[in-house]
Amino acid sequence: MSSCSGCSSSKEFTPGKEIKASPKKNIQDEMINCTLDKIRHKLFIMSGKGGVGKSSVTVNTAAALAAKGYKVGILDVDIHGPSIPGLLGVKDSGLESDRGGLLNPAKVNDNLYVVSMDSLLKDKDTAVLWRGPKKTAAIRQFVSDVNWGELDFLLIDSPPGTGDEHMTVLKTIPDATSVVITTPQEVSLADVRKAVNFLQYAKANVLGVVENMSGLACPHCGEEIELFKKGGGKELAEKYGLEFLGGIPLDPATVVAADRGVPVVMLEEDTAAKRGFLNLADNIVKALNCSLESVSSTHS
């Protein structure tokens, strides 16, 4: 992965030490812009609450896109509860710097790379006790000080809610397109509606809604069981005039794969969840292409 030749490199990132905002903020802004210019699509994966499987959706969607030949990066901005490296089986205790002083993201395979706070902690059980300014500075450095190279997709996995991390991502990456994850239950939909309102207030681009845990795929007969009901995500998307990108069923294979540190998409066997994520990846690509065509026709 090549670094930006037109930008000066910054100091190596050290958690808790080199985390203060650079006094030459304009230089960091230039480095951020230089990095983002080489990434075609930035997908901001978010939800209104925890427990909806957002990180699992991020990892498997990224793996599905990578399996289709796209160059994909995952930026885990869940500072306090990073789980992406574990779901991908990334065991590195640190990220190596290149000759220009930038960090190289951890490599999962030839098409998939990841950066997470978890990879920067020597002790994985260490709690990160940071407030807003430090989290903001860290996220900016995850973009400016990492040699992402040329990517087709950068998926940004966020913590639950609508806090500092979300506002920082939308400000730092203003052309990011949001994908909202929900489950069919009303308790999840209520929080997701708040997340959609937040995105609308922030004037963010919203690509669509994904319904995770959309029915249960029986491991014995393969039939679908409406364990938590289904369809709530699609109804929410229709209410807000958003695209419904698809539903991912509950599948025991997903749990087994996650414990092994392998995305279910990367398993050889065919499963309901694997089919769901591959279909979701296709729908995302299609929705992005339609969005670009719409913008192009508007300004032509």
Helix/strand order, N-terminal first:
HEHEHEEHEHEHEEHEHH
State mean pLDDT (0 to 100 scale). Answer: 85
Q: Span between N and C termini?
A: 35 Å
> Which percent range describes the beta-strand content?
15-25%
The DSSP helix count reads: 9
- Please tell me how large the radius of gyration is: 19 Å
Give the biggest sheet: 9 strands, mixed
Find the count of extended strands (DSSP E, 2+ residues).
9
What name does CATH use for the topology?
Rossmann fold
Structural class comes to: alpha/beta
Main CATH class: Alpha Beta
Helix content: 25-40%
Number of domains as seen in the coordinates: 1
Q: For the record, what is the CATH homologous superfamily label?
A: P-loop containing nucleotide triphosphate hydrolases
Judging from the principal axes of the Cα atoms, what is the shape?
globular
Low-pLDDT residue intervals, each spanning 5 or more residues: 16-22
Q: Please give the CATH architecture.
A: 3-Layer(aba) Sandwich
Please name the defining characteristics of this protein:
300 residues, Rossmann fold, nine-stranded mixed beta sheet, 9 helices, 9 strands, 19% strand, hydrolase
Strand-helix topology:
Blueprint: H1 25-36, E1 39-46, H2 54-67, E2 72-76, H3 84-88, E3 106-109, E4 112-116, H4 132-144, E5 151-157, H5 164-172, E6 177-182, H6 186-201, E7 205-217, E8 224-225, H7 232-239, E9 243-250, H8 252-260, H9 272-299
Helix pairs in contact: 1-4, 2-9, 4-5
